[in-house]
Design a protein that fits this description.
With 327 residues, the protein is an alpha/beta fold. The chain has eleven helices and nine strands. Helix content is 41%, strand content 13%. Helix 3 links the parallel strand 6 and strand 7. The longest helix has 22 residues. It is globular and about 65 Å long.
Length: 327
């Protein structure tokens, strides 16, 4: 699904299924559907969009909200991505009509990189994922002009340039960076109902923690949680060791902790170690209530989000930024 940005230059965001591994999945050419349906969490209705982004989707979206106005200006979307030009037009309509975005199940490529940032708020349902990767031209090669345009479009909607630029550089057209709610929050690619836009003071602890520790001559820890997984005993500890996004937040927390520890004298180091041990004990005790008998992905989402929120707040506490500590 390609569009022309310049003469003789066409771009597209292709979705590649992880289920099919390295096999490119060609989506049938059918448009996204828009229906007014019951809202999930509150009484009322919202718009639900399903399918790939195709030419004419903006017209269909606007027709749907006019024919059956929803109770809430919310678009819940499930989409593998699609036509970049149409996604840009649909995102502008979403913004003009003051709609919020809820990514459900899977919102990949143009859905995640263009539609998702356009919402008044932009959130994911538990267990849902955003997929980010590079644009491609018709030959399947990277299209950097497209990547730059999309990153700048995200910035115009209050989302951080660096998150899209970083992941689109790391993940080519045939790859995908999948992010659950935890990773999206950690990199500022998320805006809750009570949050400011990420680049205007919103929380992005993975970014803030890394920047805080730059130039402090702190040895980077290997990827993983801030403790030895061979010694993990409790289910909370095991969850940190099997959930890569929790590992990521814990690694950043460990980096910030090491930075603060390095800057203290002997007595200060002892006090910080004692406080950190107490904090870990309290965090694990509180989030343990969400642990169930099963340790599969969906069964651990409440516990994982609880642990992540503690880590986020602790990162900002350690870097002394109380304005961003979770209430």
């Amino acid at each position: 699904m390609a569009i022309s940005l310049e003469p003789q230059q066409s771009i597209s965001l292709h979705f590649f299924s992880t289920i099919l591994c390295l096999v490119c999945f060609a989506f049938p050419s059918y448009p996204m559907t828009f229906n007014t349906e019951p809202a999930q969490l509150e009484k009322g209705t919202m718009i639900v969009g399903r399918g790939p982004i195709e030419t004419g989707d903006t017209v269909r979206f606007e027709a749907a909200i006019k024919a059956h106005p929803p109770s809430f200006n919310v678009l819940m979307v499930t989409s593998p991505g699609g036509d970049v030009h149409e996604a840009m037009q649909l995102a502008k309509s979403i913004k003009a009509n003051s709609f919020s975005i809820i990514a459900h199940q899977e919102c990949a490529s143009a859905c995640a990189q263009i539609l998702f940032p356009a919402g008044e708020y932009s959130i994911l349902t538990h267990g849902s994922v955003l997929g980010i990767h590079s644009c491609s031209d018709t030959s399947g090669s990277r299209h950097e002009l497209c990547n730059e345009d999309i990153a700048n479009f995200a910035v115009s909607n209050g989302f951080p340039y660096g998150t899209l630029a970083h992941f689109s550089a790391m993940y080519g057209p045939a790859d995908m960076k999948w992010m659950t709610e935890i990773s999206a929050r950690c990199f500022g690619f998320y805006r809750g109902t009570d949050d400011p836009k990420p680049i205007h003071g919103g929380r992005k602890p993975c970014v803030a923690g890394f920047i805080h520790s730059m130039g402090k001559n702190v040895t980077f820890r290997p990827f993983g949680p801030s403790f030895d997984c061979t010694k993990a005993i409790t289910k909370v500890e095991r969850l940190f060791c099997i959930d890569k996004e929790l590992m990521q937040s814990d690694r950043i927390l460990g980096l910030v902790y090491d930075t603060e520890l390095k800057e203290r004298d002997t007595q200060g180091k002892a006090r910080l170690r004692s406080k950190q041990r107490r904090w870990i004990k309290d965090r694990n005790a509180d989030c343990r209530r969400f642990i169930t008998a099963s340790m599969d992905f969906m069964s651990t989402r409440e516990a994982a989000l609880c642990l992540y929120k503690y880590n986020e707040a602790r990162i900002y506490k350690l870097i002394d930024n109380p304005l961003l500590i979770l209430r």
